[in-house]
Amino acid sequence: MATNMPRVGSLIVEIFRASREMQPSLAQKWVTASHRAGSRIPESLISESIQRVGELDAVCCAIEDELHLLPPKDGEMDFRFHYLAFLADLWVGAAYAVCYAFASRKIFPGDQEFDALAEDLRLVRVQTEKYEIPSDRKLDAPIEMVTAPGQPGSPRRFRYDKTDPQRAHIGRIGMSDRRSPMWEVIDLNTNTMRWLERRALAERLLDVLAK
To answer: Which residues contact 81 (CB under 8 A, 6 or more apart)?
Structure first.
């Protein structure tokens, strides 16, 4: 490797370090929550997994705050939200895995806040990682769908059939007032659609794990 090439690994380390130093209170909350919740499965590495979720949250929050303070200029090719959305998808998957580990062991029995959060993370995760409508097995028949407003070209109608191996659902993604990625999810349990913001999900997860 040429000595004048960028040191990508060092840049990544610096990103995580800077994000922690910019938000010391948030970083400490995640460490505290990781010890408190991690002690519920003491022989596992879930405490470390929670800290990784927290470190990624800090990076996402830093970019979100930067986008709020320094929005893209008119006509500027700004890829910050593009990569923020990518990191947000990774964050959801990691956060869901933590909740799944607790839920499968019934660590938070009867905790409605935990159950609601785990379900919201699942709704996002299934759409972003499996390209499916969450719990589509509950569909009695194929459903007619249409591409969302704002997508290129004219609206396109298509059928979503749970038995079709080529079926696909790509939910809409947007940006909240806090410049945080948010996803529009379909909830077949309530037959509703709603938007879920990444930062709000992270705040809820911190509250649950810190109990």
So the answer is: 67, 175, 179, 181
pTM, whole model, 2 decimals? 0.92
Query: The tokens of 191 are what?
Result: 């037959």
CA quadruple 69, 74, 76, 81: dihedral sign: positive
Distance of CA 19 to the CA centre of its chain: 18
Integer Cα distance of 38 and 127 in angstroms: 28
Phi, psi of 175 (to 5 degrees): -125, 130
Report the C-alpha gap between 19 and 203 in whole angstroms.
17
- Shortest CA distance to 38 belongs to which of 29, 47, 30, 26? 47
Q: What is the mean pLDDT of the chain?
A: 94
210 in the Ramachandran plot: left (φ > 0), alpha (ψ -120 to 50) or beta? alpha
**End-to-end alpha-carbon separation of the chain, Å?**
48
User: What is the number of alpha carbons within 13 Å of residue 126 lying toward its C-beta?
Assistant: 17
Q: Is 30 exposed, middle or buried (0-12, 13-18, 19+ CB in 10 A)?
A: buried
Q: Which of 87, 165, 162 is nearest to 128 (CA)?
A: 87
The Cα diameter of the chain in Å comes to 61
The mean pLDDT value for 164-190 works out to 96
**Tens-place pLDDT, residues 69-86:** 999 999 999 999 999 999
**Contact status, residue 124 vs residue 187, Cβ threshold 8 Å:** no
- Calculate the CA 137 to chain-centre distance: 23
